[in-house]
């Protein structure tokens, strides 16, 4: 029996092999959107070389998935606070 480090692509990234693309599957919600947003930078790079990997789940429940995806994506890219505060982390500089 071969040992696998990771289970098949069912939750980790979006794409045609996602468990949310299976017949009768419920749409992805907030937590899945959050995870897909967090792994979006890595999933994007992998998707350039593998057509079975996507960065956004098309079978989603709408607003809650989108909200989770945006939060995850902004967190994985450093968030907006550092960019708007001049990189000081929100602490004013004299």
How would you characterize the overall build of this protein?
It contains 4 helices and no strands. By secondary structure, the protein is mainly α. Helix 1 (30-38) runs parallel beside helix 3. The N and C termini lie far apart (63 Å).
H/E topology pattern? HHHH
Fraction of helical residues: 25-40%
Mean pLDDT: 77
Strand content: under 5%
Task: Profile the largest sheet.
Answer: none
Radius of gyration: 16 Å
Secondary-structure class: mainly alpha
Q: Assign an overall shape.
A: flat
The tally of strands reads 0
Low-confidence stretches: none
Per DSSP, the total helix count is 4
Compact description:
The chain has 94 residues and is an all-alpha fold.
Give the helices and strands, then pairings:
Blueprint: H1 30-38, H2 40-49, H3 63-76, H4 81-84
Name some characteristics of this structure.
mainly alpha; flat; 94 residues
């Amino acid at each position: 029996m071969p040992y696998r480090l990771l289970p098949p692509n069912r939750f980790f990234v979006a794409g045609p092999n996602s468990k949310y693309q299976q017949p009768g599957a419920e749409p992805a919600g907030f937590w899945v959107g959050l995870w897909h947003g967090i792994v979006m930078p890595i999933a994007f790079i992998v998707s350039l070389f593998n057509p079975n990997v996507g960065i956004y789940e098309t079978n989603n429940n709408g607003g809650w998935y989108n909200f989770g995806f945006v939060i995850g994506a902004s967190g994985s890219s450093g968030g907006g606070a550092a960019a708007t505060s001049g990189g000081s982390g929100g602490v004013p500089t004299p």
